[in-house]
Amino acid sequence: MKILLPVDGTELSLHETRFALQLVREGLQASFVLANVQAPASFYEIVTSQDPELIEDAALEAAEDLMAPSARLLEQANVAYETAVVSGDPAQGVLDLIELHHCDMVIMGSRALGPFRRLIEGVSVSRKLLEDTPVPVLLVKPPVED
């Protein structure tokens, strides 16, 4: 089974990576696509950049930095993974990666937005994926704080 594991360098991303590794320890045969979706370059960045490749390189470097903590956990557990970086809308980026890498499932964190934040921020990435993805999505809730 190939599982897409979108991460953003947050503690929640590490929590979802640990959860995925727990599933492997309990017998799930899986490899992972560790992914990060970068925001597209701003109009200012595009206009002021003398070299568009510099923008792309900076986004790739940022994504690698954000994926590094989860990558270390996967490496320490000797679990096979590959990395992927896309730019654009997070939900659409994840959908594109599912298709591109032929993933069977997505494991991702859920921020559990309250009603006020949901009103301001709109539909969450996880909600969009639940509605639009062709594969199962396992949402990992944030750890309970003591």
State the main characteristics.
5 strands; alpha/beta; 6 helices; five-stranded parallel beta sheet; 146 residues
Describe the structure in your own words.
The chain has 146 residues and is an alpha/beta fold. It is 50% helix and 20% strand. It contains 6 helices and 5 strands, in the order βαβααβαβααβ. The protein has helices at 11-25, 43-48, 52-76, 90-101, 115-121, 125-132, and strands at 2-6, 31-38, 81-87, 105-109, 137-140. It has a 5-stranded parallel beta sheet with strand order 3-2-1-4-5, with helices on both faces. β1, α1 and β2 form a beta-alpha-beta unit. α1 (11-25) packs across α3 (52-76) and α4 crosses α6 (125-132). The protein is globular and about 50 Å long. The model is unreliable at 113-122 (pLDDT under 50).
